[in-house]
Amino acid sequence: MLKLLLIHALPAVLVIQCGTNNRRATQAPPQRSEDIQQSTEKKACDFSKFKPMKAQANHGSPVISMPQPAYPPELKANGVQGKVEVLLLVNVRSGLVEQVCLMDGDERLAESAKEVGLRVKFAPYSKYIQDKYTHAEEIAIYNFVSH
Questions:
Q1: How many other CB atoms are found less than 10 A from the CB of residue 38?
Q2: Cβ atoms of residues 129 and 53 within 8 Å
Q3: pTM, whole model, 2 decimals?
Q4: How far out from the chain centre does Cα 69 lie?
Q5: What is the pLDDT of residues 88-109, one digit of tens each?
Q6: How much is the CA Rg of the chain, to the nearest whole Å?
Q7: Which of 57, 66, 114, 117 is the most exposed place for a label (fewest CB within 10 A)?
Q8: Is residue 65 within 8 Å of 120, Cβ to Cβ?
């Protein structure tokens, strides 16, 4: 029973740091109303038709491959940096990511994060999870930091 509880209670969030150093990204200025509307649209990631195991519930499926996104040179040169959060739809049998959706972050960096998100590979999930679900949601966070 405790093992069952742990499978559903322990969170897993994947974080990748991109760039040449570990300085934190500068804070974003206050959001304008159109930015807030865009932010709401970004968070509308909806994989509910797949009835996935919800994000951060993965306990028994380690990441096999977590490639780093390419930092677009023109954005890096212009000092564009920040955190990009993507939602991954993972096939629990194969561990392959089938779809990626932007949850939060700079739209200019999002394409790179979504592209690499499709290449993330998990180990197949436990038989228990495979018996209950066909898909799972996972969250990957990519930090783009310029030098």
A1: 13
A2: yes
A3: 0.71
A4: 12
A5: 999 999 999 999 999 999 999 9
A6: 16
A7: 66
A8: yes
